[in-house]
Amino acid sequence: MPGPGLMVLVDSGMSSMDCPQVVPYPEDGKSRVRLDAVRNLFRSKFGREPEIFVRVPGRVNLIGEHVDYCGYSVCPMAIEQDIVFAAATAPADGPFLKLVNSQPQAYPDITIPNRKFDISLKRDGWAAYVLCGVKGVVGSIKELANMEIAVSGRVPPGSGLSSSSALVCASLLTTAKINNISFTKYEMADLSASCERFIGMEGGGMDQAIAFLACKGCAKHIEFNPLKTTDVKLPENAVFVIGHSLVTKKKAETSEYNTRVAECRLASQVIAKKCGIPWKSIRKVVDIQNALSVTLNELMSLITKHLRTGTYTKAEICEILEVTEEELNQVSLNQNTHHIQKFVLRERMTHVASEAHRVAWWLKETTIEGLGNLMTASHNSMARDYEASDPACDRLVELAMNAGAAGARVTGAGWGGCVVALTTRDHLDDFISQLRQTFYKDYPGDVDEVLFPSEPQAGAYVVKP
């Protein structure tokens, strides 16, 4: 048995051919209560029983922020908060898709009349994420069955805990099961990551990988290209506490996230150009590292040598790369970032390279203190170099450290959302009590919903009534 503060990497034993587990309807307990609520919603709206239930967890990223889309590995874990779908096939002569939500005031019902639908986040709202998952299955069958789906979510939206990706993953798995299509967990992780591009998101795949590949009791070290996961046994005495900053940010509805993706790509392409590498083939930071066969430390030196601090105008970048603005839009940017005229390159790439280093150190660290130091360094980099924190997140991190946390950091996309802090089991009650009395002292709602300890949960599964 590992002692306190010791992290152990173990082979997960998961086959690339494994499919999401199908389990029977629970007889009692919290899972039964959870499913009964969604079942009753489905009955009340559609007048019959659902055929299947799908449960997909949210996630908290422990280390490795904004590096998955740059090609580097991450270390998240699935959490108890989840998205649950209850679904059934619908009459062939009716609408293609009916969606209802357990919170209709915030997420109104929506009907999609036929299979020839387009997706608009502005028009469809929450349902756009469901439609992304449905569309991901379209190419795998001649014609999808009509469906009726009831949705209940306990992952707070805009919290940085992957509520939107969980919706996409749940939709993909539900649509596949209703249509008797079999995908492995790895296939679903890859497919659901690509689905979010239907609404213009250029994510890296972390959220979808942990949603399908998580194992109860373990965090996951996730590597990309190809997708590979390894279980990470967390220190025996360690507890991760999630606290909401009470500032929400929906990454798909603003440009900051995609702008960071573009800045990292442009920084890599500028270095490639200056090093005589064909730059148009460089899409991620890891691409330029591999093309030059350099270590992360050597990459940091190249960043310092070839990129200046501060902003570059779009015109300057075009001049360096010797392209027109139209060519730059086509090669380096997506539709959501064509309008951006100023980019920060050196600081963004510095965060990515240093964060990739921190992930590697995290996996070798043997003490809770050392893990905490890496988390705090990650937050400082997110706030300073990536400018992806928020004053409320910074304040919550500061108060968490004052309350005795070994480390704390903003988690998820950032610009609000949640902070994750590392403490010990013997200090947990006092730690939470102090945050209740400081950051959450004037919070009018249930503090347990915005401040809670979390342990690693299982990934997505299907429930058969």
TrEMBL record:
One term of GO molecular function: galactokinase activity
Top-rank taxon, per record: Eukaryota
Chain ranges of the Galactokinase N-terminal domain: 41-88
Residues of the GHMP kinase C-terminal domain: 364-440
Segments forming domain GHMP kinase N-terminal: 140-213
Assigned GO CC terms: cytosol
PROSITE patterns given in the database record: GALACTOKINASE, GHMP_KINASES_ATP
Any one Gene Ontology BP term: galactose metabolic process
Pfam families: GalKase_gal_bdg, GHMP_kinases_C, GHMP_kinases_N
Keywords: ATP-binding, Kinase, Nucleotide-binding, Transferase
NCBIfam families linked: gal_kin (TIGR00131)
UniProt record similarity statement: Belongs to the GHMP kinase family. GalK subfamily.
Official protein name in the record: N-acetylgalactosamine kinase
Organism expressing this protein natively: Lygus hesperus
Gene field: Galk2
